TrEMBL record:
Catalyses which reaction(s): beta-D-glucose 1-phosphate = beta-D-glucose 6-phosphate
Protein name as catalogued: Beta-phosphoglucomutase
CDD domains in alphabetical order: HAD_BPGM
Stored Pfam families: Hydrolase
Length: 216
């Protein structure tokens, strides 16, 4: 029986990956190296600090910890400027309808995001009222693939992990769901998300009846 659905934010509900990419690219430009869209794939679902470390590895740079903190802040300031302009038009196809459909069918809904900017994004897109619980990067101490974010979500909804379904676009997120003992639905391509229980291209391809069939 499905009692709760837990949703990743970036790449599942909204496409903020493009803003993360532009902000990281600007940082790389400033540091004097090229950062491509392909490089950016490695940053999806990964925390800010871990993302910076991957970026610096790509640029072949070794940088002191205090300097790293400044660079992460610089990137975040740019990212915050971009997401400040977001509105409901940036909700991904099918996402809002599916959130509503879950609740109509008595399934509770939680956010499970690595982002420390999740509340800004939810408020700007008008999505905050559609969640029964919100767990983001400000509540967690361990990043995905650690299961913490989803376990906290399940706890907030008072649902046991075996009654929870996770929707994720990143490999690290699918691993986190599996480690939490939850059913996982990959949003994206089956090649990158092969560890998920099932994979669909987007939430526009998902319904509660389909979910119940695959969960059974
Ligand atoms: P912030 P998600 C993740 O969000 C993003 O996918 C990832 O690219 C980003 O680095 C991470 O949040 C941290 O975000 O810098 O805003 O705290 O996919 O877990 O919703
Ligand atoms: Mg994501």
């Amino acid at each position: 029986e499905i009692k709760a659905c837990l949703f990743d934010l970036d790449g599942v509900i909204v496409d903020t990956a493009k803003y993360h990419y532009i902000a990281w690219k600007e940082l790389a430009d400033g540091l004097g190296f090229l950062f491509t869209e392909q490089d950016n794939e490695r940053l999806k679902g990964v925390s800010r600090t871990a993302s910076l470390n991957i970026l610096l590895e790509i640029g072949g740079l070794t940088i002191a910890e205090e300097e790293k903190a400044k660079l992460a802040e610089q990137k975040n300031n740019r990212y915050v400027e971009y997401i400040a302009k977001m509105d409901s038009s940036e909700i991904l196809p099918g996402a809002l309808d599916f959130l509503k459909e879950c609740r109509t069918n008595g399934i509770k809904v939680a956010l499970g995001s690595a982002s420390k900017n999740a509340m800004t994004i939810l408020n700007n897109t008008g999505l905050t009222p559609y969640f029964d619980a919100i767990i983001d990067g400000t509540h967690t101490s361990a990043a995905k693939p650690d299961p913490e974010v989803f376990l906290l979500g399940a706890k907030a909804l008072d649902a046991a992990p075996e009654h929870c379904v996770v929707f994720e676009d990143a490999e690290a997120g699918i691993e986190a769901a599996t480690r939490a003992g939850m059913f996982s639905i990959g949003i994206g391509s089956p090649e990158t998300l092969s560890a998920a229980n099932i994979v669909v291209p987007s939430l526009a391809h998902m319904s509660v009846s389909m979910l119940k069939e695959s969960f059974a």
